Amino acid sequence: MAIPEPARALVVAPSEALRVLVGDALRGAAASCRSTVEITEVVDGFLALARIGREKFDFVIADVDLPVLPADELIRYLRARPEQASLPVVAVGGDASEREYRLPGGAALAPSPFTPEALRAALVRAGFRFDGDS
Q1: CA-based radius of gyration for the chain
Q2: How would DSSP label each residue in 81-96?
Q3: Which pLDDT tens digit goes with each residue over 55-105?
Q4: In this structure, is residue 71 part of a structural domain?
Q5: Which long-range CB contacts under 8 A does 107-114 form with residues at least 24 apart?
Q6: What is the pLDDT of residue 18?
Q7: Looking at the domain assignment, is residue 110 inside a domain?
Q8: 110-123 b/e with 16+ CB inside 10 Å = b?
Q9: Which residues lie across from 108 on neighbouring strands?
Q10: 132 inside domain
Q11: pTM over 0.85
């Protein structure tokens, strides 16, 4: 499913370093298929739910090790809301496979360390493609 440019991404991570790394990888992934991405950042899952309730995002990238509301719980909350049930979600970090993490609802995993290409592939597995993505 192609989304009009720019794609709107919500990045959820408590660590500024991880938010910067994900942002750089997202911009690289978008640029590789001649697209752009607009990034909004929050530090935890509860803030993510609040932002998603007020704004439209094309996909969510969440740290697999979120404090307070872990990524798998964030995904379950999203899947329970009809208006966000199909929102593509990628969990980043960790070193295990999707099967080991048992991510719910069609979410994908981009284990660390990840590259723009790995993040883009995880987005495709989660159901998102940038404009120009083949």
Answers
A1: 13
A2: SGGGTT--EEEE-SSS
A3: 999 999 999 889 889 888 999 999 999 999 999 999 998 765 544 456 777
A4: yes
A5: 107/71, 107/75, 109/64, 114/25
A6: 92
A7: yes
A8: bbeebebebbbbbb
A9: 90
A10: no
A11: yes
Neighbours of 132 (CB within 10 A): 13
Residue 97 located in a structural domain? yes
Average of per-residue pLDDT values in the chain? 87
Spatial neighbors of 97 by CB under 8 A, at least 6 apart, are 109, 111
Number of domains in the chain: 1
78 in Cβ contact with 87 (< 8 Å)? yes
pLDDT tens column, 2-42:
545 789 999 999 999 999 999 999 999 898 888 899 999 99
Average pLDDT over residues 101-129: 85
d(CA 78, CA 80): 5
pLDDT at residue number 77: 94
How far apart are the C-alpha atoms of 72 and 93, rounded to whole Å? 13
